[in-house]
């Protein structure tokens, strides 16, 4: 099932054959990527960074599959949607909700900062919102 789309990739939810768990698969179109050197660099930097990151609030890269047309990034799946969409929909979050999201964002950003990672992944639109209020994956 398609759950997202960007300029050079599409994201699907799927069942991981080895583990049986629901995952997100980001399919990157190689033709579109190789046409732009800066984009190629950005994609390989993202893959390298995701391989090195292990934090409870950041979606984990589980597997990388290379095919002739696509690079498939198999990632942890969070069904909560985008934090930005939640804020727009509600127009106002309670102080308790803000505190939960803020703590998780700061924890993930601090982790990345300690690794020397500064990236556009901090954009609000790339932050996932898990409505169950349990484990959060806020940066993807």
Describe this structure in words.
There is one protein chain. It is built from 4 helices and 5 strands. By secondary structure, the chain is α+β, with helices and mostly antiparallel strands. The chain has a single domain, classed as Orthogonal Bundle (Transferase(Phosphotransferase), domain 1). The chain has a 5-stranded antiparallel sheet.
SSE topology sketch:
Layout (H helix, E strand, L loop, with lengths): L1 E4 L3 E7 L6 E8 H5 L2 H16 L8 E6 L3 E7 L6 H8 L4 H20 L26
Antiparallel strand pairs: 1-2, 2-3, 3-5, 4-5
Q: How would you name the CATH homologous superfamily?
A: Transferase(Phosphotransferase) domain 1
N- to C-terminal separation? 18 Å
SSE run: EEEHHEEHH
Proportion in helices: 25-40%
Here the CATH topology equals Transferase(Phosphotransferase), domain 1
Output the radius of gyration: 15 Å
Backbone structural class: alpha+beta
What is the general shape? Answer: globular
Largest sheet: 5 strands, antiparallel
Q: What's the number of extended β-strand segments?
A: 5
């Amino acid at each position: 099932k398609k759950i997202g789309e960007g300029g050079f990739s599409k994201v699907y939810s799927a069942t991981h054959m080895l583990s049986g768990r629901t995952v997100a698969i980001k399919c990157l179109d190689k033709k579109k990527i190789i046409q732009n050197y800066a984009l190629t660099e950005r994609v390989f930097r993202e893959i390298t960074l995701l391989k090195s990151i292990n934090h409870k609030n950041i979606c984990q890269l589980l597997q990388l599959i290379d095919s002739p047309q696509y690079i498939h990034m198999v990632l942890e799946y969070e069904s909560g949607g985008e934090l930005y969409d939640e804020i727009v929909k509600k127009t106002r979050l309670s102080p308790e909700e803000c505190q939960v999201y803020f703590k998780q964002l700061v924890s993930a950003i601090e982790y990345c900062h300690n690794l020397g990672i500064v990236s556009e992944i901090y954009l609000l639109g790339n932050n996932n919102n898990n409505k169950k209020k349990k484990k959060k994956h806020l940066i993807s």
